[in-house]
Design goal:
It is a single chain. With 774 residues, the protein is an alpha/beta fold. The chain folds into 5 domains: 86 residues, no CATH class; 102 residues, Rna Polymerase Sigma Factor, Chain: A, CATH 1.10.1740.140; 157 residues, P-loop containing nucleotide triphosphate hydrolases (Rossmann fold), CATH 3.40.50.300; 148 residues, P-loop containing nucleotide triphosphate hydrolases (Rossmann fold, 3-Layer(aba) Sandwich), CATH 3.40.50.300; 167 residues, Methane Monooxygenase Hydroxylase, Chain G, domain 1, CATH 1.20.58.1080. Helix content is 42%, strand content 11%. The strands form 5 sheets. The protein has an 8-stranded mixed β-sheet with strand order 6-5-7-4-8-9-3-10, sandwiched between helices. Strands 11-18-15-12-14-13 form a 6-stranded parallel β-sheet, sandwiched between helices. Helix 15 links the parallel strand 8 and strand 9. The protein is elongated, with a radius of gyration of 30 Å. The N terminus and C terminus are likely disordered. The structure holds adenosine-5'-triphosphate and magnesium ion (MG). The site of adenosine-5'-triphosphate has 15 residues, from helix 13. This is RNA helicase. Its cofactor is Mg(2+); Mn(2+). It holds the Pfam family DEXQc_Suv3.
Length: 774
């Protein structure tokens, strides 16, 4: 059974194309319980030209695929090998028909602690001596009555033992009594009395309750757990901010209206200030801008700290990513950018924390006006003042009446926006074949590569006049885009139940992306927006005309000390189980707040569950901002956690062996994707290194490696079409094209979303099937 090492527990979010390809690797094992998942996996894996044997085991996961419906208009049918349209429609129907799973109950989440029967016998069984030997049938007959006794049920219910919990506790108690060779004296006598008709079944109630509480320790501390997880009044969590009467100034307006610009004017002129941005890229930009403008400013992101003072004294100004905002330092001016991110289901908590907790006299919030009412009410409730500044777009933005129709009509200054990497590759390839050079930007590229691609596109002397990008351009990059062309309006995502779906972008996303066209100061003319395919244009117009819903609820997340207290009360629970229990028990003001999703956290918690780590360390590892769809990065994190748990410093030597440094320049797309993953591993090292400086001892060396790697990635992205072409050539056993551009038609088959180098993965996973238990 275990001939196949486990990659990691594949869950619904991680079922990407990469996964399918990997599970066809004989070294890996898929874990699933769902027959439709298994069927899909087999089909998809065969589609990836693999017909290896599979080893299938069950765990409770479920998956439903959403496959794009065939359009009767102009959009070409995406090619998926080995599957028919009919089959794909069936999959879509399966998704539509799937009912949302009800929220888990506490009973379904608590894991019972085993209560072992007494199997060793004392020299004298006093109970048997006093009351006589207890026969199995007698115990069973008592339990037949006890399990349906009304008074027993009522008393148990008062302690929270109801429904499934009652049934399971009763069964387990019966097993305990039947399997114990010797029972406690008093219990033995009472059982015997009841069996003889000299007592009532309810006499067993105290023993049952004791057993149930031993099995479910949360029952003993339910009230404490509820108090710990009371999140009903977040405004009171930040006494330092509450001690100041803050001036909240809301800069509201559409994209490209100068909101951030105006807020930054205050930041630059203040005695001290903090800028909280949504991305590392933006934090970096403001850091440089501030220093350029003569306001010394430090940089703080998860992976990078720069102190401008050569002696290491902190500057009075700091530019940071919003998660890194210090709530302990008082500032004159704080700028919280992209405030609408309060509603983000994953990261919203960071904006809520900054908004409620920042200790500044003036708090400038910039973004869509949708959070006005929420922030105004919060400000009034805590005694802060509130001012509203509304802006208009600095350049006009127009939705065109015509779609582009064909990529051959692209013009200099166009940005073709796609939502998958596969589409990015497809569009770049098509442009290349018609002789148009493009710059490429997508989310998993290192920030420096994004900036260099953006610079190429912005540079009038560079041949790349067209940009092909994902919505990664939605925030943070200054681009001279004249026209946005949506290649598609559908975006893949993971829904609330963890199913992989593809759905239409939201109006605010459409506006944010479209708003990149006609950036003030970068382009002269009106910004234009259209779609590639005619069928999408009415939808785009509708999206652009839809008014964005106001923000009613903002995100929250538990704090590490709350989870630590939970772990103290429930020592048998895994970290991911503790999170689930917390989410179920916590009390919220549901009219204003929601709990942010912690899927990624829980996936990482499950991956390192078997590694013996302190809870705080474990919690920190799980907060790592890595993509759970990248097995290579997850496997590297597991190796780091193991090494950490042994107390061995994570040295350059260790790191280079994990990533197989030095790495060659990529020849194929798979090589490039692998380099991007390696870059993320180095980022992870740096991120953890700032949290555990004593263990991650080679930060500078890691940064140097990142520099080298980034250059290789930058070069490779310039030649992405050659890499794409080589992908097919390698599969067909043909010689690869060396590093020079060729205008050759790339077969559709070669367009792959993501790939991994099997050899490296194999090495990383070598130790993965070893059992590590806490
Ligand atoms: N008064 C101004 N003088 C000179 N440049 C300006 C002025 N206002 C805005 N800009 C420039 O216009 C561009 C857009 O401004 P800004 O980034 O502040 O817009 P925004 O409303 O924050 O946009 P987004 O919603 O996309 O973040 C920037 O390059 C900015 O430097
Ligand atoms: Mg802005």
């Amino acid at each position: 059974m275990n001939r196949y090492p486990l990659l990691h527990c594949i869950n619904r979010q991680t079922l990407t194309n990469t996964m399918y390809r990997q599970i066809s690797n004989p070294l890996l094992k898929l874990i699933s319980s769902n027959s439709s998942l298994v069927r899909c996996v087999l089909e998809r894996s065969r589609a990836h030209a693999c017909s290896r044997r599979f080893c299938i085991q069950t765990v409770p996961h479920r998956v439903i695929f959403n496959v794009p419906v065939r359009s009767k208009h102009t959009r070409p049918e995406p090619k998926v090998l080995g599957r028919t349209t009919k089959k794909r429609k069936t999959m879509l129907e399966m998704k539509r028909n799937s009912k949302p799973k009800p929220a888990p109950t506490l009973e379904s989440l608590v894991v019972p602690v085993p209560v072992e029967p007494h199997v060793s016998k004392n020299s004298t069984d006093i109970g048997a001596e006093l009351a006589g030997v207890l026969k199995r049938e007698e115990v069973v007959s008592v339990f037949r009555l006890l399990s349906v006794d009304k008074s027993c049920m009522e008393v148990a219910a008062e302690k929270g033992i109801t429904g499934d919990l009652y049934r399971k506790a009763m069964l387990d108690f019966k097993r305990f009594c039947v399997e114990s060779i010797e029972l406690p004296v008093e219990m033995h006598i009472i059982l015997k009395d009841i069996a003889n008709g000299a007592g009532h079944v309810s006499d067993m109630l105290p023993f049952f309750m004791e057993h149930a509480i031993a099995m479910y320790p949360h029952l003993r501390c339910l009230e404490d757990l509820k108090k710990i997880s009371d999140l009903s009044s977040p405004v009171h969590w930040y006494p330092a901010a509450r001690a100041v009467k803050r001036r909240i100034i809301y800069h509201s307006g559409p994209t490209n209206s100068g909101k951030t610009y105006q807020a930054l004017q205050k930041f630059f002129r203040a005695e001290s200030g903090v800028y909280c941005g949504p991305l590392r890229l933006l934090a970096n930009e403001i850091f440089h801008r501030s220093n350029r403008e003569g306001t010394p400013c430090d940089l703080v992101t998860g992976e990078e700290r720069i102190c401008v003072d050569p002696d290491g004294n902190p500057a009075c100004h700091v530019s940071c990513t919003v998660e890194m905002t210090s709530l302990d330092t008082p500032y004159e001016v704080a700028v919280i950018d992209e405030i609408q991110m309060l509603r983000d289901e994953n990261r919203g908590w960071a904006w809520t924390r900054a908004l409620l907790g920042i200790n500044a006299e003036e708090v400038h919030v910039c973004g869509e006006g949708t959070a006005e009412e929420f922030i105004r009410e919060i400000a009034e409730s805590v005694g802060d003042t509130f001012e509203m500044n509304t802006y208009e777009r600095l350049t006009p933005l127009e939705v065109m009446d015509e779609p582009l129709g064909d990529l051959k009509y692209v013009q200099p200054g166009d940005a073709v926006v796609c939502f998958t990497k596969a589409d990015i590759y497809k569009v770049s390839q098509k442009l290349e074949t018609i002789g148009i050079e493009s710059a490429v930007i997508y989310g998993s590229l290192p920030s420096g590569t994004k900036v260099s691609q953006a610079n190429n596109f912005n540079n009038p002397n560079h041949p790349a006049k067209v940009l092909v990008a994902t919505d990664a351009i939605g925030m943070g990059l200054n681009l001279s885009i004249q026209r946005i062309v949506f290649y598609s309006l559908n975006k893949p995502s993971v829904d609330g139940e963890g199913n992989f779906t593809k759905s239409s972008i939201k109006p605010h996303e459409a506006l944010q992306i479209a708003g990149r066209a006609g950036r003030f100061g970068k382009t002269k003319k009106t910004g234009l927006v259209t779609t590639l395919f005619g069928e999408d244009l009415p939808k785009l117009k509708k999206l652009m005309a839809t008014s964005i819903q106001k923000i009613e609820k903002v995100g929250l997340q538990p704090a590490v000390n709350q989870i630590e207290l939970f772990a103290y009360h429930l020592p048998q629970s895994t970290l991911s189980n503790l999170i689930d229990i917390f989410m179920t028990l916590c009390s919220l003001d549901h009219s204003r707040y929601f709990m942010c999703r912690m899927d990624s956290f829980k996936t990482l918690a499950d991956v390192i569950e078997g590694v013996p780590l302190d809870l705080t360390v474990r919690y920190t590892f799980c907060c790592s901002p890595i993509s759970t769809t990248k097995p290579f990065v997850i496997a590297a994190m597991l190796m780091m956690a193991r090494r950490f748990s042994k107390g061995s410093p994570l040295t350059e030597k260790f790191l280079t062996s994990v990533i197989e440094w030095p790495l060659k320049s990529p020849k194929t797309l798979a090589d490039l994707v692998h380099l991007e993953d390696v870059f993320d591993v180095l980022d992870l090292y740096l991120w953890l290194g700032y949290r555990f400086p004593d263990m991650f001892v080679h930060m500078e060396e890691t940064r140097a490696m990142q520099g080298v790697l980034e250059l290789k990635i930058q070069e490779a992205v310039q030649e992405i079409v050659r890499l794409l072409l080589n992908e097919t050539r390698r599969a067909q056993g043909n010689p690869l094209i060396p590093g020079k551009k060729l205008r050759e038609k790339v077969p559709e088959m070669s367009i792959k979303e993501t790939l991994l180098k099997d050899g490296v993965l194999r090495k990383l996973m070598k130790t993965n099937n070893k059992k590590h238990r806490r």
